[in-house]
Amino acid sequence: KAGVTQTPRYLIKTRGQQVTLSCSPISGHRSVSWYQQTPGQGLQFLFEYFSETQRNKGNFPGRFSGRQFSNSRSEMNVSTLELGDSALYLCASSLGAGGPYEQFFGPGTRLTVL
Amino acid sequence: GENVEQHPSTLSVQEGDSAVIKCTYSDSASNYFPWYKQELGKRPQLIIDIRSNVGEKKDQRIAVTLNKTAKHFSLHITETQPEDSAVYFCAASPAGSQGGKLIFGQGTELSVKP
Lengths: 114, 114
Fold this sequence. Notes:
Radius of gyration of chain A: 13 Å
Oligomer: heterodimer
Number of helices of chain B: 0
Number of strands of chain B: 11
Distance between the termini of chain A: 37 Å
């Protein structure tokens, strides 16, 4: 089975711009969770989508949003980028129903905001 | 709020020694506790997990113990090897999140010296 994939792997943006990150889960997985990883704050939960609906939400501002498509692929959008948004963004997929189950992580998207 | 504290932040051991990492969680209703290993530049990978109805679980050189009363769980690695060197993260999944939301500890950087 192919693992979780994320595109793009690296991204450089400037303050005020917006960005969209993509995550393709393992085949058969219906849940996709997103995390922000920084040296100072560690791994922080953003949100989770299951069957195209946001099922769980973290404590990030409304500039961070996401969606999930019928094939379980998920996108995350960050609007009005700030310097502090520079981070590694990881998505993870799991079976999702009747869980909890192991979350399998993707390689991440490294976002740099200048 | 939901919080997981992890100690120590760094741990250095000699090859063959044991290593212990401890975590405390705040939400008493949390029901799933995974441990992830993240090597430099790589994605986090699950090494072991435990559910709230189990007190201990072992997989070869790795074991996890859970004390629900104290809201405390620990990772034990025996006969450490240089390839065990990595950052280890504990996490807790709040009840009701169905495993889609993980609250992570700050991480422990383990160094195993040959």
